């Protein structure tokens, strides 16, 4: 999500677009703006924050981590718990002791001596996800979530997800080039089937304000486009749900509008959302991010290709360049395979079916699934 936040920072300083070349005047202090991503996890799991600096447009780096900081979570009772620095701007604590009746804030002291603190925020408890469902729609497969809170204390919700799918390469390869010769692949050397993963990049929000009861029904989470290889064999999605305060929800809503819904004359205008994080010694210091404290609930489902009622014709990535050809020779193979760009796929036999006289070959990207995924089966896979 930090890419969305970095985009949000740039929108604060750049507004407007025209057809003629435009050189915006960028505040020289953009590169000093602290960007804070994460939340105080009040339930099971780690509390993790990612700290970075907003990058200048001239800076080719899209992510500038804020390393060397001291990060802690402080309670309204004065108890401080430190997060460990994991590198690359990541700070984490897996064993925070959270008391629901107290309020909490994030405290950051940078390596340059700047002292930041968020406002104290109330602890929210996220209700369980009732179910994650899917249905076939004209554009593919729509995935949705249902939830409710009997105590009506949630009302404001946010979701994200992680999706995993089993896929196969365009072509299988029965042989492998090693050294200067070609051998039969062992099962361990197969690169035909792998697992791909992806995390949500958009901000998914919903609320139950218009209902008498705190119920979320058929909240859209994700859509799998028709023909996607995600549903070529087997697919799984882990949906994560968070209850937010009204203020945190409004911040995320503004962030969503500023990063996902701009670009047309009918879209919302860019706006600057006030962060609840301040520099304790400089009120003019801009900080991007919003700290909230909540628990997380999750639910996973699986979908098999055979579960879909209509024919799902998978459109393989790189299919336009994935053409197999043949070479009718068994010597000087290094000229084809030593660079690794091409991969042998099968043996070509003489009419007797005994002697090998050549090999099929294809681009590696069409054969080696590890270029787009992993051969290691996830622990949760069923």
Question: What keyword list fits this structure?
Answer:
382 residues; mainly beta; 41% strand; elongated
Secondary-structure map with pairings?
Layout: H1 2-13, E1 34-41, E2 47-53, E3 64-65, E4 70-75, E5 80-87, E6 90-93, E7 104-109, E8 115-118, E9 123-124, E10 129-137, E11 140-149, E12 156-168, E13 175-178, E14 181-184, E15 193-199, E16 204-207, E17 214-225, E18 234-244, H2 246-260, E19 277-279, E20 287-288, E21 293-294, E22 296-304, E23 325-327, H3 334-337, E24 342-349, E25 356-363
Parallel strand pairs: 1-20, 1-21, 9-21
Antiparallel strand pairs: 1-2, 2-3, 2-6, 4-5, 4-7, 5-6, 7-8, 8-19, 10-11, 11-17, 12-15, 12-16, 12-18, 13-14, 18-22, 23-25, 24-25
Helix pairs in contact: 1-2
Give an overview in words.
The chain has 382 residues and is mainly β. The chain has a domain at 2-120 and 246-291. The chain is built from three helices and 25 strands. The strands form five sheets. Strands 1, 2, 3, 4, 5, 6, 7, 8, 9, 19, 20 and 21 form a twelve-stranded mixed β-sheet that branches. Strands 12, 15, 16, 18 and 22 form a five-stranded antiparallel β-sheet that branches. The protein has a three-stranded antiparallel β-sheet with strand order 10-11-17, with no helix packed on it. A hairpin with a 5-residue loop joins strand 7 and strand 8. Helix 1 (2-13) crosses helix 2 (246-260). The chain is elongated and about 85 Å long.
């Amino acid at each position: 999500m930090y890419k969305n936040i970095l985009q949000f920072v740039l929108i604060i300083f750049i507004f407007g677009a025209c057809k003629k070349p435009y050189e915006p005047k960028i505040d020289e202090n953009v590169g000093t703006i602290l960007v804070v991503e994460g939340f105080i996890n009040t339930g099971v799991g780690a509390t993790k924050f990612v700290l970075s600096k907003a990058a200048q447009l001239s800076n080719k780096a899209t992510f500038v981590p804020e390393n060397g900081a001291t990060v802690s979570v402080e309670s309204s009772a004065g108890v401080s718990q430190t997060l460990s620095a994991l590198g690359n701007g990541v700070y984490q604590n897996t064993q925070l002791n959270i008391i629901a009746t107290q309020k909490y804030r994030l405290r950051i002291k940078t390596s340059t001596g700047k002292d930041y603190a968020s406002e104290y925020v109330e602890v929210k408890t996220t209700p369980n996800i009732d179910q994650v469902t899917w249905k076939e729609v004209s554009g593919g497969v729509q995935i949705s979530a249902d939830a409710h809170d009997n105590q009506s204390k949630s009302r404001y919700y946010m979701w994200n997800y992680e999706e995993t799918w089993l896929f196969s390469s365009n072509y299988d390869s029965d042989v492998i080039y090693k050294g200067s010769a070609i051998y039969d692949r062992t099962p361990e050397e197969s690169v035909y089937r792998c697992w791909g993963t992806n995390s949500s990049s958009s901000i998914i929000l919903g609320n139950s304000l218009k209902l008498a009861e705190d119920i979320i029904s058929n909240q859209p989470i994700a859509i799998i486009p028709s023909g996607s290889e995600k549903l070529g064999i087997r697919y799984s999605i882990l949906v994560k749900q968070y209850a937010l305060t009204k203020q945190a929800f409004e911040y995320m809503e503004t962030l969503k509008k500023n990063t996902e819904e701009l670009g047309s004359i009918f879209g919302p205008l860019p706006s600057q959302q006030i962060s609840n994080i301040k520099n304790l010694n400089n009120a003019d210091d801009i900080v991007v991010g919003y700290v909230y404290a909540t628990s997380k609930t999750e639910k996973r489902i699986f979908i098999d290709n055979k579960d879909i009622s209509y024919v799902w014709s998978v459109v393989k990535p790189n299919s336009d360049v994935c053409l197999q050809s043949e070479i009718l020779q068994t010597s000087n193979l290094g000229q084809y395979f030593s660079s690794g760009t091409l991969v042998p796929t099968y043996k070509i036999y003489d009419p007797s079916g005994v002697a090998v006289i050549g090999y099929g070959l294809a681009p590696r990207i069409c054969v080696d699934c590890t270029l787009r995924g992993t051969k290691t089966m996830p622990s949760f896979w069923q």
